[in-house]
Amino acid sequence: MGTSALVLATPLGLGKSNHLLNALYARAANDPRLKLHIYTALSLARPRPGSDLEKRFLQLFLDRHFGSDYPDLAYIGALHTNSLPVNVRVSEFYLQSGAMLGVSAVQRDYTSINYTHVARAMAEAEVNVIVHLVARRSGPNGVSYSLSSNPDVTLDLLDKIAASGKPRPLMVAQVHDDLPFLGGDAEVDADFFDLLLDDPACHHQLFALPREPVDEVEFSLGLHASALIRDGGTLQIGIGALSDALIYASVLRHQQNDEYRAALRVLQTCDSVKLIAQYGGMESFAQGLYGASEMIMDGFMLLAKAGVLKRRVYDDLPLQRALNGGLIGEILTDDSLPRLLACGAVAALIDQTELTRLQRFGLLPPECRIDGPLLHFANGETIGIDLNIERDRIALAKHMVGQKLRGGHYLHGAFHLGSSDFYEWLRNLEGEDFSGLAMSRVSHVNELYGGAETLQVAQRRDARFFNTCMMHTLLGAAVSDALENGQVVSGVGGQYNFVAMAHALDDGRSVLMLRSTRRSHGKMQSNILWNYGHTTIPRHLRDIVVSEYGIADLRGKSDEDCIKAMLAICDSRFQDALIATAQNAGKLARDYRLPDSARQNSPQRLRAALQPFKARGLFPAFPSGCDFSVDELRLLPALQLLKKQTASAAQLPGLIGRALVHGQPTAEMAPLLQRMRLDRPHTFAEHVYRRLLTQALRASSSM
């Protein structure tokens, strides 16, 4: 018998039907005649505990947070154990951060590609089946379906395949009742799919990202970054602790502006003050922000709840320009019609096409109709359709007073992923809150092309694109997705798209955020470097960089000025060595002296600056919410300390010896030991663990 080939595409992140994918994988694993090639990205996997202590802590948390019945992707487990069958191949363009370092098959088959080019690449790969998790709802017009988290690549892929003349892939959908039903491009009819599966056994708990803690370094960075946002502007953000800090600072700016200004004041440098005045602001968000981001996550929910995410954009260029120019507001007044006529946003002669347009955006009520030369209203009033006639123009202007614009969007996104609270928020959106959140193709969110560029530029005014990088060079290149040996940490995703878009928009700015240092192999290292063996964002696209120590504006600057700006936001422990390297390369003048104000860049200074605010209840460790119990929160610092202490094999015997002598638990530690199943140790190892943990609890509580 011959060999058959299944070239399967499945969405990144939440859009995967794990049960169905596992069944197809099992079929291929048991039949070497079947070749299975999976194209996807961000294959979500639960954390994998390492040591016995990690298992004791994590297993209960994992079962509670993800559900004890969560179906892990079988191919991920096989990749980690190097047991993927030879007839199965997995190609991903974005990886769960750090999860696949050292996994050879993944590193070999990783595809480095911009998010917006994924559809093209998969069309060329001749995908013949797409497997998609979908949401559904019942309404007056029957049952409808939503691609929910992932209209991002699916719709573009189908268009690319159709344009190439190739056969349409088999569209297989698995319904999941807990998946949020979202509109925009995501809403599709039942006949969009060739096969709709609805098996209650597949309705597992959705994968929810555990929310991360945020420390003083990250809060400091978030404060600096948040002041670069201009009221009335556009926001794109990524995910992680730095984004959480940015969101918290933005909400603080809006809701507790005096505290926000005070916190920012104790951290600011002279350069930061100038940049904030030029590109951002510190006032509350009176106009609000519009979100246009490939990923929708908890941060956007928090901004919406806080009243920050409220600027709406409209898919009508003349109307959007009138709004941008302040000619009208979202509620029409007695002078709105004359202004709309003057700028061409309303036609002087209203025909059926124009009436439909005006009704779509709320300028005229839906019951209004045209009959001959007259507009007929529900109350029996009639007005002439020729607005060149003053009488009719005045009459219609009065009729428009108080009308509220409709059809606007406060958020466009290509996929969503976040906490269980975030999914619940999405599921409960109603009315304008629901319609104002539009899921879109990634080509719409991440690029300015496709024929709607002029409208998109008008909508995305004062855009700020916030993304995280791992390292940054003094000359302006960013390292975000891989190591210098080629090992991929995550992937470029849409970061390059947003950086390039920031340069394409006259009032847009790309802001790359990074912690200035990291601890590696027990040693503190700088994340601001002279150079590095891998680049994600090239130096010719350099823009704004933010660390915990301030803001560096690199756009259009000379190499020497870039170096000076980056040195000013570098940890002071590494400045002198970097200065010497830059001078030896002839890129920095020999007589350059770093300003004294930049010589105080230390974590201790940040901690001392924010301590009074923390004492007043600001800057909590989990600003986006916490998934851990009270006991787990007490255990975490002790376990982190213990992991650090046991990293050195040479120090381990002495650590155990001290623990056996001094590690007697106190009564208040009893529930913590019980949570770790060490309240009644049976083996020698459990006795040692109990003493080690007790000593770590005592040490971490005094830190």
From TrEMBL:
Residues 418-581 form the Acetyl-CoA hydrolase/transferase C-terminal domain. GO terms for biological process: acetate metabolic process. Gene3D superfamilies: 4-hydroxybutyrate coenzyme like domains, Acetyl-CoA hydrolase/transferase C-terminal domain. GO terms for molecular function: acetate CoA-transferase activity; hydrolase activity. Coiled coil: none annotated. Keywords: Hydrolase. InterPro entries: AcetylCoA_hyd_C (IPR026888), AcetylCoA_hyd_C_sf (IPR038460), ActCoA_hydro (IPR046433), NagB/RpiA_transferase-like (IPR037171). It holds the Pfam family AcetylCoA_hyd_C. It comes from the Bacteria. This is Acetyl-CoA hydrolase. It comes from Pseudolysobacter antarcticus. The lineage of its organism: Bacteria, Pseudomonadati, Pseudomonadota, Gammaproteobacteria, Lysobacterales.
